[in-house]
Amino acid sequence: WQAKKLCPELVLVPPRHDRYAEISRQVNALYMQYTDLVEPASIDESYLDVTGSLPHFGLSAHALGDQVRRRVREEIGITISVGISFCKAFAKMGSDLKKPDATTEITRENYRDILWPLPVGALLYAGKRTCEQLRMQGIHTVGDLARTDRQALAALLGRGGDALWLAANGLEDAPVVPPDEQPAVKSVGNGRTFPRDLVTYDEVRRALITLSDEVATRLREAHMMCRAVQVSIKDPKLKVIVRQMQVGRPTWQRREISDTALKVMAANWREGAPIRALTVTAENLIPADQATEQISLFDAVPQKQREKQEKLERAVLQLRKKYGADSILLGPGDEEH
Question: Are residues 133 and 215 in the same domain?
């Protein structure tokens, strides 16, 4: 709404999340033709370890990157940028250097010349607030950070400072881990920073319902249920409070997650206090097939309501899979429409 106010002629195009996900699957399937070590980092980024497959293709890493770019462009119809390096952090930085369609190779011989002059914010996980802290210490570039005493950085930023130092010096050694080898999910969260502060109960309620809906969907996709719900509240001064509450029984239902999140808010927020960001996280997860519960005779009516809600949410999930994530939206009455 702020953009439309500034530019009334602005044309807004609705997102096509289902189409984005389909393209992402096609691209990753193409990557799998080159190596089985493919780790999707997000819907539009993946890490590939081609160390063992280069001899099979008889290509250099740079030539293979060019081939992958060409095939994605010709077979799928989009452009990609490829970063090649000896560690994931530098490969990511390389892919960001020349967009939208290029291959950049960062080697042990050239990384100081190519990456160290970049602003420190070019490092993954060097967020705005971290960069401000670093600038106050006279650290402006990746090279500045790399040459800083490691212990001093850890004292300033904690474990995050040590991780940044390792990344800047090319010492980050995280392996490429395919999805089926990922460690078990311990929590599922969804957060949002709002374009303007939320101050009314209705605004906060709508936000929590939307966040809880995404968390519930991801729980079902992971075949997990939660036994607690955590809410993180950030105000305009970036002060954060985190509170959680147990749910009565293991759940992946959106209604139960949002109801619990609203109870957390009621106990820890007063209407009118501005909120810049909210995060809802499902905690204490267990596999859905291990979730058991004892049903009391006195709980028969709520149990029937829960079963009715379960049928409703499963139907909504199926419709969204068929027609797209935005085909059914949450209305002001917290009902599906």
Answer: no
How many angstroms separate the CA atoms of 158 and 112, rounded?
25
315 and 232 in a single domain? The answer is yes
Cα angle, residue 281 at apex, residues 279 and 285 outer, rounded to 5°: 175
Give every CB contact of residue 31 below 8 A, 6+ residues apart in sequence: 38, 46, 48, 68
> Which of 22, 45, 293, 313 is labelled catalytic?
45
The answer to whether 174 touches 248, Cβ cutoff 8 Å, is no
Checking if the pLDDT of 257 tops 60, the result is yes
Question: Could you tell me if residue 157 is inside a domain?
Answer: yes
Write out the residue range of the structural domain in which residue 273 sits: 207-323
**For residue range 8-42, what is the model confidence (pLDDT) as tens digits?**
888 888 878 788 889 999 999 999 999 999 999 88
Radius of gyration of the chain (CA): 23
Is 45 a residue of the active site?
A: yes
pLDDT tens-digit series, residues 198-236? 999 999 999 999 999 999 988 988 889 999 999 999 999
CATH number, residue 233: 3.30.1490.100
State if pTM tops 0.70: no
Establish if 53 belongs to a structural domain. Answer: yes
Residues 115 and 258 in one domain: no
**Residue 312 covered by a domain:** yes
- Cβ-in-10-Å burial (0-12, 13-18, 19+) of 24 comes to middle
